[in-house]
Design brief:
The complex is a heterodimer. Chain A has helices spanning 16-34, 37-45, 48-52, 54-71, 77-93, 98-119, 123-147, 154-184. By secondary structure, chain A is mostly helical. The longest helix of chain A is centred in the C-terminal third of the chain and has 31 residues, at 154-184. Chain B has 2 domains: 1-87, no CATH class; 139-183. In chain B, helix 3 packs antiparallel against helix 4. The chains are: A mainly alpha, B mainly alpha.
């Protein structure tokens, strides 16, 4: 579903109808879950397994709906994936501790960065994805400093070191990209095969 | 309507969770836009949105020093460097119109989803040693003291690393006049 987002260039402009319908359904099912009425509904329907884990049910429903909606012609896939991500995150973490909410958000940002690192062809976009992943790790460490170790706040000190390394990594990485661009006139990851025999 | 009343009551009780979700609603779509926006310069600016939201998260986690460092280093510094690199390279990949092969994209999607679900399940099943203590209100002072006492050596190493990395970056990015080498070689 996410695959085709980047290449809607020559198609007609996406219409709002599918996106809007998906947004309304996703938001209403998440609100129903958050206010606790989804559980009673599931129990009335006899789905006891799902009633025990309603957040898994919401997540699965949103994932299936997002796949269907983004497969429709002329749908705005970026908006659909964003809404699905936000609503899935809220549903998965609503009843959890604060620490788990932060850690799940960091894990989500890290996975987004990981996906971008794998699929991007532009080397600069790959570096942006790496920055996203480093930022997610920082968020993890600061959340640990707040909720697990609030006296010595060692997590924040580690986060400072990661910040330093991230700055160094960004400078060196972009300088390497510039040097490669000067030699090969491209920043396409597929064409960086000078070392391939 | 009754559901929304329940939710507004919840938001008044759990202010921190409410602010967290508000920032997540900014951060997650911005992160997707960074990956999927066709104009790569725009995805560079969406990066500012993600970093700004994470800066807000640091503020509600009571890490004031890190929030401001995040604002200065990531939101301004790194994004600026990325945008300048974009302008210098000017790839025009969009016109080539070819993407990474579908197989690779599918495997990337599977890897990222499985990774997220694994981490989420591990987080939920763990019982965290949560501390109910409050944070020291003077934690900036505390960080400063720790950096020059307990963590003095790593701090010095970090500064040397940064210096070396920036010098290396300047050397790598410096435009070498190619003719000079051949001219000197020819003269010799």
């Amino acid at each position: 579903m996410v695959d085709q987002i980047m290449h809607t260039g020559n198609k007609p402009a996406p219409t709002l109808a599918t996106t809007l319908a998906f947004a309304i359904v996703a938001i209403s099912i998440t609100v129903a879950f958050a206010s606790g009425q989804l559980v009673t509904l599931l129990l009335n329907l006899g789905l006891n397994t799902f009633a025990a884990y309603p957040e898994i049910f919401v997540f699965l429903v949103i994932a299936v709906l997002a796949t269907i909606a983004s497969a429709m012609p002329n749908s705005n896939r970026l908006a659909i994936v964003s809404i699905a991500g936000v609503m899935g995150y809220i549903a998965l973490t609503y009843n959890q501790d604060m620490l788990i909410k932060y850690l799940s958000l960091a894990a989500l940002l890290f996975s987004i960065g990981m996906y971008g690192m794998v699929v991007s062809r532009n080397a600069v976009r790959v570096l942006m994805s790496i920055e996203l992943m480093l930022n997610a790790v920082n968020l993890n460490l600061v959340a640990f400093a707040r909720y697990v170790d609030p006296v010595h706040i060692r997590g924040q000190i580690f986060a400072i070191f990661i910040l330093t390394v991230a700055a160094a990594e960004a400078a060196v990485g972009l300088a390497i990209v510039l040097a490669i661009y000067r030699n090969t006139s491209t920043v396409d990851m597929e064409k960086f095969n000078l070392l391939k025999w | 309507m009754e559901q929304f009343e329940l939710l507004t009551n919840w938001a008044q009780v759990n202010v921190e969770a409410f602010v967290l979700y508000a920032l997540a609603i900014i951060a997650i779509p911005c992160a997707f836009c960074v990956l999927f926006d066709r104009a790569i310069i725009r995805s560079g600016f969406f990066l500012i949105g993600v970093f700004g939201a994470v800066c807000g998260l640091f503020l509600i986690l009571q890490a004031q020093f890190l929030a401001l460092a995040q604002l200065m280093i990531y939101t301004v510094g790194i994004t600026l460097v990325v945008v300048i690199a974009l302008m210098l390279t000017n790839p025009r990949l969009e016109k080539e119109g070819v993407a990474v092969e579908g197989r690779e994209r599918f495997s990337g999607l599977v890897i990222a989803t499985v990774f997220f679900l694994t981490i989420y399940c591990a987080l939920r099943s763990e019982s965290w040693p949560l501390s109910s203590l409050r944070m020291n209100p003077e934690n900036v002072k505390q960080i400063g003291a720790a950096l020059i006492t307990t963590y003095a050596l790593p701090f010095e190493f970090a500064s040397v690393l940064l210096l070396a990395a920036l010098m290396g970056a300047i050397l790598l990015a410096k435009a070498e006049p190619k003719n000079d080498v051949s001219k000197i070689a020819g003269e010799n």
